[in-house]
């Protein structure tokens, strides 16, 4: 294996180990030593890749955002309906939040506004723009009411998702997340779906979020 | 002044100073020394009241929750309409989040699931129960659709509020919070208001959140 590949592997191992430690004991209590031990590397090797704990946390956030946005782009390319695209993206993120510790820790760190100064706003800005475009697409496709203000609705969906997953994390350790996001979409559709498309979109949401009766 | 009053005053001063420090530099970087200096007390006096930084943070959360729920109870007693009560509570909290550093820091600490182990769930549970009762009241008063599931809707409103204020904090330092919460209520009302009451409730929301045209 080339030296560079090994360096990439070591870096990945540190990011994954750090995500586990941040999630398990919290950012404040996860020491560099804990992270190095969990990754099976020396502190020297860790400091070769990262200058500080905050730098590692930012790498966890970046890796989380990369994984989630890559999956989101694939969904966008493969899906014709903008409303379906949004629901599939939300369901995909919910599944990753349950299954992937890097995603779970990265989102928690992003939401923990108390941790960094300045806080991390780039992932939120990305999602706001993506959903503004998709809501606009859903209006154009006759899925959402023509009176829908795309920027305002996107600027509610992203924070609402953030809050639903935050409470699901605190209250059920993400156990009810996908179901709660499905309920969020039921309410959103009742508010903004074109009446003629409401039943079809509701049935689609029930299938996507596994809440079909 | 009796010794007991002085002790209460000192404790309050520490809680307020700690809230400022947690908000300004983040929980991880706010040291006991910083907090004691900001409160104008010795470290010894601080340790007379609190055993650890986490204990101070939990006191900030408790004081925040006490202030906000006391105000919420007054609103509940003074307001006949359950839908109006909910909107007034949301607007009151938005104003306190802008004006009161203890409320602002307390909510940030509550939302920062990464900070404590176990995380603080009591404030969320309180709000979920309060809003479940109020949504039920709004259905009974003919303000919301009879088909509304009170527990499910409350379990969306509280997380959605949490997320809206979290993003408003990160993106605008709470500058757009009241307006964004007003937009949240426009969407909620479109989804669940009894059609015959929709315009009246919309106008009420526009007045409460200051978005009347």
TrEMBL record, chains A, B:
Signal peptide bounds: none
Taxonomically, the superkingdom here is: Bacteria
For the keyword Transcription regulation, the answer is yes
Query: Could you confirm whether the keyword Transcription appears in this record?
Result: yes
Q: Which UniProt keywords apply?
A: DNA-binding, Transcription, Transcription regulation
Query: Where does the record place the HTH tetR-type domain?
Result: 8-68
For this protein, the record's InterPro entries field holds:
ArpA-like, CprB_TetR_C, DNA-bd_HTH_TetR-type_CS, Homeodomain-like_sf, HTH-type_TetR-like_transc_reg, HTH_TetR, Tet_transcr_reg_TetR-rel_C_sf
Residues in the DNA-binding region annotation: 31-50
Q: Which GO terms describe its molecular function?
A: DNA-binding transcription factor activity; transcription cis-regulatory region binding
| NCBIfam families referenced in this protein's UniProt entry, alphabetically | ScbR_bind_reg
What is the name of this protein?
Answer: HTH tetR-type domain-containing protein
Q: Which organism is it from?
A: Microterricola viridarii
């Amino acid at each position: 294996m080339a030296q560079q590949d090994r360096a990439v592997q070591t870096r990945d191992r540190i990011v994954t180990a750090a995500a586990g430690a941040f999630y398990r004991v919290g950012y404040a209590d996860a020491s560099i030593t804990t992270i190095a031990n969990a990754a099976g590397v020396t502190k020297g090797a860790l400091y070769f890749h990262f200058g500080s704990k905050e730098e590692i946390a930012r790498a966890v956030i970046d890796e989380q955002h990369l994984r989630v946005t890559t999956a989101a782009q694939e969904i966008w390319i493969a899906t014709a309906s903008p409303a379906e695209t949004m629901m599939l993206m939300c369901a995909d993120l919910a599944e990753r939040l349950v299954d992937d510790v890097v995603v779970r820790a990265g989102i928690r760190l992003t939401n923990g506004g108390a941790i960094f100064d300045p806080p991390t706003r780039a992932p939120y800005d990305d999602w706001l723009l993506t959903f503004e475009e998709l809501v606009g697409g859903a209006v154009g496709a006759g899925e959402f009411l023509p009176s829908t203000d795309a920027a305002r609705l996107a600027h509610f969906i992203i924070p609402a998702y953030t809050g639903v997953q935050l409470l699901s994390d605190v209250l059920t350790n993400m156990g009810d997340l996908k179901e709660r996001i499905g309920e969020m979409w039921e309410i959103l559709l009742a508010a903004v779906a074109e009446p003629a498309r409401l039943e079809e979109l509701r049935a689609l949401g029930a299938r996507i979020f596994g809440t079909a009766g």
